[in-house]
Write a structure and sequence with these properties.
The chain is an all-beta fold. It is built from no helices and 14 strands. β12 and β13 form a beta hairpin. The N terminus is likely disordered.
């Protein structure tokens, strides 16, 4: 990922996906599936790493976690570990996550709509 001094934004690699996907840091994903697409958090991440998901398909998306991982949004957090998740509730819902503790904790930087936390 490179910082663009002209635009002031981070350049990310983007993929449109229609199947369940293991995410990697510094990547963006367009979720385009008939059914919900399950994304899994990276097992290795550094503080400041980002991930973005943009909903496109009618099925929406679901972010699943690995052992010891948690996603936070203000005072709401997912259940820590493999049982925790965050999901979209509408078709075109978007989310940006930033790693705040290497490998384990992610903060929702921005999202539209209501998220479902488990």
């Amino acid at each position: 990922m490179a910082w663009s001094a002209i635009s002031g934004i981070l350049d990310m690699s983007w993929s449109q996906v229609s199947i369940d996907t293991a995410m990697t840091s510094q990547n963006g994903y367009v979720a385009n599936g008939v059914g919900a697409i399950t994304f899994t958090l990276p097992t290795s991440s550094a503080i400041g790493d980002e991930i973005e998901i943009i909903g496109k398909g009618a099925g929406g998306w679901d972010i699943e976690q690995g052992a010891g991982q948690t996603i936070h949004w203000g005072t709401t957090s997912s259940t820590t570990g493999a049982g925790g998740s965050v999901a979209s509730t509408i078709q075109y819902q978007c989310i940006v996550l930033r790693c705040i503790t290497a490998d384990t904790d992610w903060e929702v930087v921005t999202a539209n709509g209501t998220l479902t936390f488990v």
